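Give me the 3D structure for Methionine--tRNA ligase.
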Amino acid sequence: MSRILSAVAWPYANGPRHIGHVAGFGVPSDIFSRYMRMAGNEVLMVSGTDEHGTPILVLAEQEGASPQELADRYNRVIVEDLTNLGLSYDLFTRTTTRNHYAVVQEMFRTVHKNGYMIEQSTLGAISPSTGRTLPDRYVEGTCPICGYDGARGDQCDNCGNQLDAIDLINPHSRINGETPKFVESTHFFLDLPAFASALEAWLRTRTDWRPNVLNFSLNLIDDLRPRAMSRDIDWGIPVPLPGWEENPNKRLYVWFDAVIGYLSASIEWARRQGDPDAWRPFWNDPEALSYYFMGKDNITFHSQIWPAELLAYDGRGTKGGSPGQFGTLNLPTEVVSSEFLTMEGKQFSSSRGVVIYVRDVLSRYQPDALRYFLSVAGPENQDSDFTWADFKTRTNSELVAGWGNLVNRTASLIHKNFGEIPAPGELQPVDQGLLATTSAGFGKVGDLLGTHRNRAAVSEAMRVVQEANRYISETEPWKLTQDRDRLGTVLHTAAQAISDANTLLAPFLPHSAQAVHETFGRTGTFSPLPRIDEVTDLDDDSRHYPIITGDYELGRTVAPWASAPVVPGTAVAKPVPVFTKLDDSIVEEELERLRQA
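Predicted structure for Methionine--tRNA ligase (597 residues):
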């Protein structure tokens, strides 16, 4: 057994999430976490809503709300959507908890004490019309290094170099298009050059990362510069130092505090378990594993900034130092980054109406249909495109006609002819061949899931389904009504194959996995789903918020990653279809919704 931290990117609480977001951070992390639990590992899956920074301020002002009111509203929307999608967080929280504030400030104080937070004067971008600081990512222009038109004030996605907003040619605000004004201000900078050797040495050991992630991360090493970790803004976590803490217009940079959320969420989870130190085996034990899931635009924050913060806290830079009260913290085992999902050939854009929100999909279609599409056709290691035509085709031909039909017709034959799982007679080579295929699937699919190759894993699981369908076609059980012994053997074998395939598909299709489990007369939880709990802030009785959590215990609510023999005599009722077939008309209906948007 291994201890595994599944650290999932924090969705920003300025609106509902669209399917491109969950294609990158949500579904892949849940598939991995579910498999690892089934395989017998102790998993801690954490995340929450990221609620600080200028974009929240801007939107709150536009909507006539306070920043906290806006964050509260979208926190709940996001919690509901991710729960309905079936993402099995141990804790999904938020960055405006008092616990998070305390953890972030402890990190800052120790990093500062160790000498890695340095004061520097810098030219920061200011909106001329509002006087408000513009975040680096909200300033765009032409890259001075490669000439790419569309570089941001923190980095150029084309050449990968770190930038400052003042470096950009023809800079403009993404919020309103105006040319920013640059004014001098004093801030704290994380001394990234002090970790160049340590970061490179660590990255050189990450040979099993996806090549695009590793190469991008290594390319950043040559251009390491101190990175601002405070901002001129009044919405965020105060800088915990005398002379700064009392300043209402100086706050920690949202990206400094957001990545620390992985640690603060782990600590909050432990406190809510009644064991305040339960997080430590996931963070302090060098044998523990940690996987960070996000889209490719956030690689630099997880393979450079966050590891540098961890090294600074541990005192493992060129200036030395010692850890604070959290002890020595583990560096990421792997940064698992997905590419981008487009929508009908266009980049997602809420402002231009090229978007479909998670809640809108789930209001009209089954959650497992979306999860399946994002697994088999999502942006795992290259950009991919979501089209309604492909969504309909894959749902109907693969889920409904492939997997769903196998389940339904086998259960129908068992119900009609026996009313229960029949006992098998002597197995023939064709029976043994199918069971050998399903048995081998556990090793093949498991190896792929453990290395984040979800596309190949779900394809292998569906190959097992295809073999079971072929078996039914070849044995023709509907013609065996006069040979009860052979009919019982065939249907018992088919039921066993379905049970095995259901386990293989459970990480991808948790909702339907439970339905298939119950179709064949089994009871209890086979594939646990998350739930929403309303909680009180651990350190402020006046604050209340929803969290995502769940009950994920191997053998009780989580099915083991192994074949579970079907039991003769188990009653099988007349089945109902597991998946809903989609009408051809939904394609034009959805495209019309996009046109209207």
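The mean pLDDT is 95. Let me know if you want a second pass.
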